[in-house]
Amino acid sequence: MARRLIVARLRVIVPLLVLLVLVILFVLLTPVYTDLLFYRSVNFSKVFTTVLWTRVLLFVLFGLVMAVVIGTNLVLAYRLRPPLRPLSVEQQNLERYRSALEPHLVAVLLGVAALFGLAAGLSASGRWRTWLQWVNGQKFGVSDPQFHRDVSYYAFTYPFQRFLLGFLLSAVVLSLLVTTITHYLFGGIRIQSPRHGDVRIETERVSPAAKAHLSVLLGLLALLKAWAYYLDRFGLVFSSRGVVSTGAGYTDVHAVLPAKLILLFISLACAGLFIYNIFQRGWTLPLLGAGILVLSAVVIGGIYPAIVQQLQVKPNEASREAPYIARNIAATRDAYGISSVMPQNYPVATKLTATAVASDPGTVSNVRLLDPNKLSKTFKQLQQFKGYYGFPDTLDIDRYTVGSTTRDYVVSVRELDQSGLAPSQKNWINEHLTYTHGKGFVAAPANKVEGGKPDFQVGDLPQTSPFDITENRVYFGEMSPDYSIVGTKQQEIDGPGAAQGSTTTTSYTGDGGVSIGSWFDRAVFAARFGEKNILFSSDITAQSRILYERNPRDRVAKVAPWLTLDGDPYPAVVNGRITWILDGYTTSDGYPYSERNALGQVTADAVSGQNRAKQGTGDVNYIRNSVKATVDAYDGTVTLYAFDESDPVLKTWMRAFPGTVKPAKDIPAELRAHFRYPEDLFKAQRDVLADYHVTDPRAFYSQEDFWDVSPAPDDQNTDQPPFYVYSQLPDHKTPSFNLTSPLISRRSSKLAAYVAVSSDPGDYGKFTVLRLPQGVTISGPAQMQNQIETNSEAASKLTLWRGGLSNTTIQTIEGNLLTLPVAGGLVYIEPYYVQARGSAGYPTLQGVAVAFGDNIALEDSLEQALDTVFGPGAGKPAAGAGSGTGAAGVDTTGTSTQPPAGSATPNPSLTPAPGTTLSPDLVAAIGAAQAATKAGQQALAKNPPDWTAFGAAQSDLAKALASMSALSGSGTPSPSAAPPSATASPTASPRASPTTGPSG
What we know:
Layout: H1 2-41, H2 45-79, H3 89-101, H4 105-125, H5 128-136, H6 151-185, E1 195-196, E2 199-200, H7 208-235, H8 250-276, H9 284-313, H10 317-335, E3 344-345, H11 354-358, H12 361-364, H13 376-383, E4 389-390, E5 396-402, E6 405-413, E7 415-416, H14 428-434, E8 438-439, E9 441-445, E10 449-450, E11 453-454, E12 473-474, E13 483-486, E14 492-496, E15 503-506, E16 514-515, H15 519-529, H16 533-536, E17 545-548, H17 552-559, E18 564-565, E19 570-574, E20 577-588, E21 597-598, H18 599-602, E22 619-620, E23 622-632, E24 638-642, H19 648-656, H20 669-672, H21 679-692, H22 697-702, E25 707-709, E26 711-712, E27 715-719, E28 723-727, E29 736-745, E30 751-758, E31 767-771, H23 781-790, H24 792-801, E32 810-814, E33 818-822, E34 825-836, E35 844-852, E36 855-859, H25 862-870, E37 889-890, E38 896-897, H26 920-941, H27 947-967, H28 980-983
Parallel strand pairs: 3-31
Antiparallel strand pairs: 1-2, 4-7, 5-6, 6-9, 8-12, 10-11, 13-17, 14-15, 16-17, 18-20, 19-20, 20-23, 21-22, 23-24, 25-29, 26-27, 28-29, 29-30, 30-31, 32-34, 33-34, 34-35, 35-36, 37-38
Helix pairs in contact: 1-2, 1-15, 2-4, 2-6, 5-6, 5-19, 6-7, 7-8, 8-9, 26-27
C-alpha cells in the first residue's frame, strides 16, 4: 500500500519537476535565443556563433583542467593516507568526520572538483577576447626598443601568457589547499603527537607520502614563480617607475631587469630544493630556499633598484632618462596615430585691419552661430509639431552642398519621444503597436539665422528639403523605445497630414526586426520583455515583426563587440535615406613604451553624458579609427566598413570574424563625403599632443612647453569640447570641414596652440597645429569668457537682454566660444541666446560677441560685431548671416518690422511667427517692453549715463516682461494667440538645386 502511494506521488511530482526544469531552461535560454534571432536579422550570426563557441571552448577546456587537477590531487591525497594512524585526541576528533565522509567520498570528490571547475570555466569564458587575439594575432611590423620583439607579442601573446600563468598559479595554490586539508583529515598531517599516558611519543607529523605530495606541488609553484619572473622582464616595457608614465626607465633596465633574471634562477633552485626534499627528512632545505627567495625579492627586487634610483638616477635624471624618454615619445606618437603631426609656428598677428578681416571670407562667412549643444529646445519648439516627437539633448554638425555652396549644418532627426504622450494615451497598444517611429530629417545652416531662429532648409512635415529624401521614417534611433511590433492590424501613426488637423498612418514594409508570427516566437519575446500582451494580442499577425535593440550605438556594439565606439552617432542623408554613422575604434593597452590613458577620462568634457555615451574607465595606449559603421534608420541594417586597413588590430579581428567587415573600396562616395573625424579619438589625441608635441627628450623632461586642454568657459570643472567648424585654415586656399580645439599653456593658462584636423574626403585626418609665439600673450577661452562678461559695454547689453537684475523671466545662454584663425590672427566669436523661462521658452540668437585682444564687442549680428572690433567693412562677408532677435521686433499688426539700430526685443521666444494674430494686451505688453528697452539704451548712451532714467526704464521693462510672460508662452496664452508649437513652424523651401551628395 505504501509503495503504491509513493509511486502515485512520484507520478505527480516527477512531471511537475520536469515542467519546472523546462520553464527554468526556457527563461534562461530566452535571451540567448532572441540574441541569435537578432544576429540573424542583421546577417551577423557568425559573430554570435564565434563568441558563443569560443566561450564554450574556454569554459570546457579550463574548467575541465581545473577539475581534473583538483580531483587528481584529492584522489592522490586520499590514496596516500597512512594505513595506521597513532591514537591521539586530535585523531579521535577527526575520526568522526572521516566516518561521515567515507561513505560519500565519490560524491564529495566530484562535487569539489566540479565546483572549482565551474568557477574556473566561468572565469575563463570571459576572456574570449584574449583568446581570439592570441589565436588570430597579426604582426605590427614594429619592434620594441628593449627586447626587439614585435609589438604583436605585447598586444596579443603577452596578455594570454599572463592569463595562463594566473590560471596555473590558481590551480596549484588551490591544489595545495585541498591537498593539505585532505592529508590532515586522513592522518597524513598531524598537529599533535600521540601520547602513551602522560608521555608524548615523538613521530613525524607529516607522513613521507604527504611530504612528497606537498613537495611536488611546492616545486611546481616555484617553477611557475620562475615563469612569472621571466614574464615580468617583458612587462617592464609598461613600467611606471621612470620619468614618463609608461615604459622602462634607467632603473628598470639597469637594476630591475637583472634582478628579475637573478630571482628567476633562485626560483628554479627553490623548485629543485622542494623536489629534492622528497628524499630528505624534515623541511629545512625547502624553508631555507623559500627564505632565500623572499629575502632576494626584497633586497634584489626592491631595495637595490631603490638605491640605484636615488643615488644614480636622481642626481642626473635628465641625462640618465633621456634615451628612455625618447623611446616613450616615439612609441606614444606612433600608437596614437600622431607620429607625423608637427606644430608649425604661427606668427599670430596682434593687429588686424578691417580690410584684412574682410579678405578672409572662407572663415568669416562660415562662422557658426548655431550651437548644437544649446539649441535642442529650439528645434523641438519649431520642428516638433506633435507631442510624441522630440529631439536629443545635443544636436549634430555635418556639411552639405546645396547648389554650389558648401556649408556646415546643424542636423538632427525628429525621433519618437513617447514621454510626450498624454497619460490617457499611454497603454500597451499605443506604446508598442501604434506610436512606433519618428519621422523627418531636420537641418539648418550653422552660420545663418532668421529673426534669431534657425533657417530650417530641411524640415517640416510633410518633409521639405533641397536634396532628395526618399525615406524619412526613423524606426531605429537614439530615442526609440525598447521594442515596437510592426505589421500588425493596428495602423501606425505617421505624423500630421497635409490638411489642417489631420493625421496620417502607415504600416511598416521593411525587413528590419524579427518575425513574430509564430506562437513560439511570441512566447519567447513575451518572456524576454516580460509582457503577456505579446503572446495574447489579436492584433499581431503572421506578417508582424518585432523591432528591438534599436539604438544605433547598441546595434553596432552588439555585432562588433570587439570595437570601442565613439560616444556620438550622427545622422546623415545618404542616397535618399537617413543613415546613422558611427566611428569604431580598435584599441589596446599593450603597445610597449606608449603612454597609457583612461579613455573615459581623456574623452570627458562639458557635453559628455547627455545623449553622448561616456567611454569606459579602462586604460588604452593604442587607438585607431579603423571602422566606420552605418545603421539604416528605417530597416536597421548594420554595415561595417574597414577604414584603416593597415591596422594590425583590425586585421586580427577580421581574421577572428571573417566576412563581417567590408573592405574600404566598398564605401560609397556619398557616404564617405559625410565621414567626420571622430570626436573621442580627437580628444585622446589632443590630450597626448599637449605633452608629446615636444619631441626633444631634454625639453620633454623640463615640461616647460607643455600644454593643456582649456576648461569649458561656462563650466571650468570640465574640459572645453572640440568644435566642428567650416573654416579656412592658414595656407589653405579654400574652406574645409575641421574639428578644432584651442590649447592653453600649462604654466600660465594663456593660449598656446590651435589644433585642427580635416574631415574632407581628399584631406581626411590631416592635422594642423598652429603654435603661438611664447612672447605673445593671448587669453585662453575661459579667460576670454570672463573678459567678455566684464566688458562694460557688453555687460550693459547683457543686463538689458536679461531684463534687469530683478527679472526672473529671461535668461541668457552663452553659445560655443569659437577660436578661429582669421587673417593671420586668432579671433574669439561667441553667440548669445535668450530664452524665456518656463516650458514654452526656447533659445533664440540675441547677439554675437567678437573679441580680439582687448577689443570686445557684443552686437546684434556678427557683421556689426566685426565692424565694431576691426572697423567698418570687416563684417561684410557675414552680411548674409542674419541678425539676432535684438534686430527684429513686432509692430501692432503682428508683422515683423525692423526697429531702430540698438533696440532689442527682450523676449525673443515670444516673437510670433509671421501672420500670427496677437491679442491686444500682448501687443501692448510687447510695445511697452520695446519702449522701456529703448529708453534704457538712450539713458546709457548719454555722457555721463543717466542712471536714474536707466533705473526707471528697467523697472518699466520688468513690468512689461512679467505681463508678456503671463499673456504668452510662460503663462496662459490668450485665446487669439496660437501656442509656439503650432505657430513657429516656418516652411523651408529649396534654395537651389542640390548636388548629388554632400562634399567636404
